Amino acid sequence: TQSTRPQRLLSAVQKNATRGDPCSVVRAIDDFCRHKEWAMNVGDEKGCILDSVVSEMNPAAVLELGTYCGYSTVRIARLLPPDAKFITLEFNPGFAAIARQVIAWAGLEEKVQLVEGASGDWIPKIKEQFGIKTFDLVFLDHWKDRYLPDTKLMEECGLLRKGSVLLADNVICPGTPDYLEYIRSSPKYESRYFKSHLEYTKVEDGLEKSIFLG
Ligand SMILES: Nc1ncnc2c1ncn2CCOCCNC(=O)c1cc(-c2ccc(F)cc2)cc(O)c1O
Ligand SMILES: [Mg+2]
After folding, report:
1. How far is the CA of 144 from the centre of ligand 1 (A)?
2. Catalytic residue list
3. What CA–CA distances, in Å, run from 104 to 7, 43, 134, 161?
4. N or C terminus of the chain with fewer C-beta within 10 Å?
5. Which residue is closest in CA terms to ligand 1's atom 30?
6. What is the Rg, in whole angstroms, of the alpha carbon atoms belonging to the chain?
7. Residue of 143, 148, 197 to mutate, ligand 1, most atoms within 8 A of C-beta
8. What is the C-alpha to C-alpha distance for residues 17 and 2, in angstroms, rounded to an integer?
């Protein structure tokens, strides 16, 4: 039977990366996506911006919306302090199955809780299910038309505190116009755009970093 692109990406990790070495897993995925098959990981260029945001925050509680193959999950988890809580939500069971194996190859399965399901269904249940009060950092990288409704949902569910950071991928390509309009005009957020490129291409894209002011 035909393999899927995520399966071929996992094979490239298992072939070229060292078990237990997150950086080699990140490098193997970037090499595969740059030289073999493009895939919608945040990539190396935007990944460096993600790394700097995570490192400067040293977050105790992180939420990722949209795991895909686990590339950004590994990038984030490798930088977290030992007892940090990190939840990543993936809707697609096929993607989730691959991501679990990529995260395990990096040796980070203890640091990440991968939950399968839709963000809109899970966000209201996170507090009770995982004993999390608020998130210090949320990385939005799922359906682009879910960024805005899910941000409002996180506000309503009290998952954000003064100083919580939302970091949104793809605000230019594919684009999240309603989210950008809301977050940049809302008095509840202080936003900044980090100009970059769509992963593995010369097309413009960027990350929007927004601090919740409470
Ligand atoms: N827990 C959840 N709840 C709800 N929905 C969920 C979910 N978990 C997953 N999903 C479903 C959506 O997951 C994938 C979303 N990501 C993208 O679509 C994406 C697309 C491009 C892209 C594609 C083609 C181009 F030509 C140019 C750019 C680039 C990117 O960097 C992207 O991130
Ligand atoms: Mg993305």
Report:
1. 7
2. 141, 144, 169-170, 199
3. 15, 19, 26, 31
4. N
5. 40
6. 16
7. 143
8. 23
Quickly count: other Cβ atoms within 10 Å of residue 4's Cβ: 12
- CB atoms under 10 Å from CB of 152, counted, come to 11
78 lines ligand 1 (CB under 6 A): no
Supply 187's token pair: 């008095």
- Tens place of pLDDT for every residue, the chain, 214 residues? 889 999 999 999 999 999 999 999 999 999 999 999 999 999 999 999 999 999 999 999 999 999 999 999 999 999 999 999 999 999 999 999 999 999 999 999 999 999 999 999 999 999 999 999 999 999 999 999 999 999 999 999 999 999 999 999 999 999 999 999 999 999 999 999 999 999 999 999 999 999 999 9
